[in-house]
Description:
The complex is a heterotrimer. Chain A is of the alpha/beta class. Chain A has helices at 8-15, 19-40, 48-52, 98-105, 148-155, 172-178, 212-222, 266-281, 297-312, 330-341, 344-357, 362-386, 409-413, 420-425, 454-468; strands spanning 43-45, 67-71, 109-114, 134-135, 138-142, 161-166, 181-184, 204-209, 252-256, 285-289, 389-393, 429-436, 442-449. Helix content of chain A is 37%, strand content 14%. In chain A, strand 9 (252-256), helix 8 (266-281) and strand 10 form a beta-alpha-beta unit. In chain A, helix 9 (297-312) crosses helix 11. Chain A starts with 7 loop residues before the first helix and ends in a 9-residue tail after the last helix. Chain B is built from 3 helices and 3 strands. Chain B starts with 6 loop residues before the first helix and ends in a 7-residue tail after the last strand. In chain B, a hairpin with a 2-residue loop joins strand 2 and strand 3. In chain B, 32% of the residues lie in helices and 8% in strands. By secondary structure, chain C is an alpha+beta fold. In chain C, helix 12 crosses helix 15 (488-498). Chains A and B meet through helix 9, helix 10, helix 11, helix 12 and helix 13 of A and helix 1 and helix 2 of B. Strand 3 (86-89) of chain B pairs antiparallel with strand 10 of chain C, so a sheet runs across the interface.
Amino acid sequence: MEPYRLTLKQAREFVGKDLSKRDQLLDALVRRVNDVDPRVNAYVHFDPKHISSQKQAELKGPLAGIPISIKDNMVIKGWETTCASNILKGFIPPYDATVIRKLRDAGAVIFGKCNMDEFAFGSSCETSAFGPTRNPWNLDCVSGGSSGGSAACVASDTAIAALGSDTGGSIRQPASLCGVVGLKPTYGRVSRYGLIAFGSSLDQIGPLTKTVEDSAILLNVIAGHDERDSTSAEIPVPDYTAFLGKNVKGLKIGIPKEYFVKGLDSEVEKAVRAAIKVFQDLGASIAEVSLPHMKYSVAVYYIVAVAEASSNLGRYDGVQYGLRCEKNNLVEMYFETRDQGFGAEAKRRILLGTFVLSAGYYDAYYVKGLKARTLIKQDFDRVFEKVDLIIGPVSPTPAFKIGEKLDDPLSMYLSDIYTIAANLAGVPAMSVPCGFSLTGLPIGLQLTAKPFEEGTIFRVASAYEATMKWNERKPEL
Amino acid sequence: MESKINIDQVAKLARLSLKPEEKGKLSKDLENILAYVDLLQELDTSKVEPTSHVLPIENVFRKDKVIESGVRNFVLDHAPKRDGKFFKVPKVIEGL
Amino acid sequence: MNQYEPVIGLEVHVQLKTESKIFCACRTAFGAEPNQNTCPVCFGLPGSLPVLNERVLELAIKVGLALDCEISPKIKFDRKNYFYPDLPKAYQISQYDMPVSKSGYLIIRTTAPHPNPLPRQIEGGQAQGEGRVRVLQERKIGITRAHLEEDAGKLLHEGITDGSWVDYNRAGVPLLEIVSEPDIRSPDEAYDYLMALKSILQYLDVSDCNMEEGSLRCDANISVRKKRDEKLGTKVEIKNLNSFRAVQKAIAFEIERQTGAVEGGETIRQETRLWNEGKQETISMRSKEFAHDYRYFPEPDLVPFSVPATKIEDIRKSIPELPFSRMGRFQSEYGLSEYDAKVLIADKKWADFFEECIKEKVNPKLVSNWLQTDTAGLLNERKIEISAAKITAKTFAGLIKLIEKGTISGKIAKEVLPMMLDTGNTAEAIVKEKGMEQVTDVGALEQAIDRVIQENPGPAGQVREGKKQAMGFLVGKVMQLTGGKANPKMVNELLAKKLS
């Protein structure tokens, strides 16, 4: 097998302590990128020089010599980091994000920076200033978003594993559309220090991998308390790989009745229902549960997330870094820089967020949104008194065509209807492949657990993966 | 609820100058989204506390200790416009 | 009779005395090279996150307790959004609806007139001011709130014509904004409030309170209304006040301007005005192109804070004796007048110096007088702080002792003091070296007196005839002859005896 096909676990075994094997792996991947990525467009900053400069003389750590690709919204010292936005072109961070430091400490090689929706605003990777990332299973389709590049490089074997970030489904939805494993950990599980903020109270970094096991290996490395992030939890990190390979007998799984409603694609519904059957066969008990406020989650999200975003994006003004459109006076420079620098979706969200926070609308929108968020969180608290895990769809449809929803923001927003609630409630959730549509597009299954119980997700997802082996199918490229 | 968004005012507040051709489309998009968001109005939230932090974490501090970051020159070197050890901006006219 | 009264509230920004900034580990020290004290956090670089400096909250609570505020059971931070190049994130982390503390007060003692003084007036408190005897009144100024926020950077326009320079050294410096109720009624009262507040902050050792270095800043809100009106007039905010005197003068100017405008039938516009020190007037900032809408919302990057009662008690215990009670003690313990006590306690360094002197068992009133008049004047001329002067409490007490013992006269002491300040020598050494001891030797004095009587037979005769007025002339001559060193009391006695 070509080394680029290896999973993270296999790559680790392949490299071992052998520097030449490490180089063989890296070279194979670079060749694969050059061969495939011009069609997929998963990478925005890819420079083999950066890779060779990281070749340590000694291989040590749990990810020794293993290349990991990074969504372009995590800062890496000395690497241009743009959030796929024109406004950040030329921004060279002077520091490493905490996850990057942890990866380096674990011996990993930072491989390349992945395409994304501009500032993670989108569900299709089409709002990128670098053009859309295409779905490796069908190049006419979207890769999903916003971590579309991270999902597509893993699916197209141009990466061993990648990091993405998830504010309303940005890891899980592209993972689902590209047929890889994507985990959004509990809010506070992984440090946000160095993650360029979108919705600060929702953002979370997580792994996109070829297998559930790889996801656990990568989470082991990146999780944990960080004194630089006030919102990071001081809760010990278990060895997530210890949850793998266990059976699911006696586990209680909840199926929210609100999941199977109008708008859910019949093929997706079929795949998800089939997965439920598999869990039954594996000995789990299935119960219907209710998340009565889930239907409000998209509305809450498009208040809370955009409000935070409008504030987080105020700093892009051309003064200290990134794009600057020179003008005779400061006010004109601000307007021109922001006008040229931001794309349409960024402007849409900045305007919306500015509006919902503005005088006279704050209570009606922002505070109302925060209160509805409480109700959504309480739904999860109640359900998790009865069950260990919730399963359901990730995306209401398989990958859609590029351009299909670009002009209709609301329908684009509604494609996150199943994923947003987990961010609002702060709970961990994973997308794991659960089948294919008739046209050969992947479908994902979402597993949602209690806060800080990623272990339960790994246990259940690995049992399912071992049974169905959907991950063995590969796109032809 | 009625939510006629004054796009010019909001754009000004956000320091975005919108081209006439974008303005109409953006305005319509925002109205549609706000109309959708009005779904929340049917919820009775009079007895509900707002959630701005989802985790029950409190009292996170750092010690009052100086650590030199040493990033100044790096940041200045990559700044769009610097003048010696300063960042430089165009004339600030009043009324900001 | 003026039928309008001013209503004044002050917002004081105090830099809290910490090693590092409020949300990052950068140095707060004044005088660094441009942009030296910076890191990804205070530069507001993408991806960076704030973490609260523990010491900042402790100091803020300390101030809150000293101002009799309620310490909020739940403290949170909010973002105040606006664009300006000195604000690297385009929002300032501040506190909106859950500040560290609220609803306190500060009692000031002032000679400023007030329409409704508190019932109790202080007895015997007399002050010399502008030739009039004025009475100190106690007045309670409400404290609305005291909240934490980060300072912004600095925009420099001097020495550059085609733009401005930005220095972020101050960005993220911890500030406590202390907002008073609109309880102040005159420029003098505003001045006294600021002095009292500064004094408390110095006693608490929470701030350097140095206006020149920006560690203390003040904005004033002023409106005028008809006396006995309940409703407040439209308020005008004055910024760019660089000293307490500037606050006083700007308020006085503004009262006059607003009163004149209202009397002339104009409506006062709600606006921000800047104090122009050169022209001694407030000028309107050009009408705002952008309406302010700060869009405050809870800072998602910081968690809420709730300070345990035990911690608050620990902080309360760390509060030293405050100026107000020290003033009372100076009166009762040392017999100082209220006015003298007020002047001495205003600056902790002076009050400490005073008490150090008293330990040397010298007369407190004498020490107080010598500190307030001569010493203060001399230090002022030399532009040095008492804590930095070459004189110490011990050497100063030495000077007082020489006066008490009659070794030197007050007149000689006035010559000795500047020498002590300039050389750091003790009074004893200076007096000895320069031969400045008072002549108390009866023989030597009689010799001088005899010579004066001989040289001035006229006045001497007058005294003999009972015309005592000439006595002073003769004493003066003796003093002149002895180079001022004769003990005046002894000279008087001996002269009287000889001419009786």
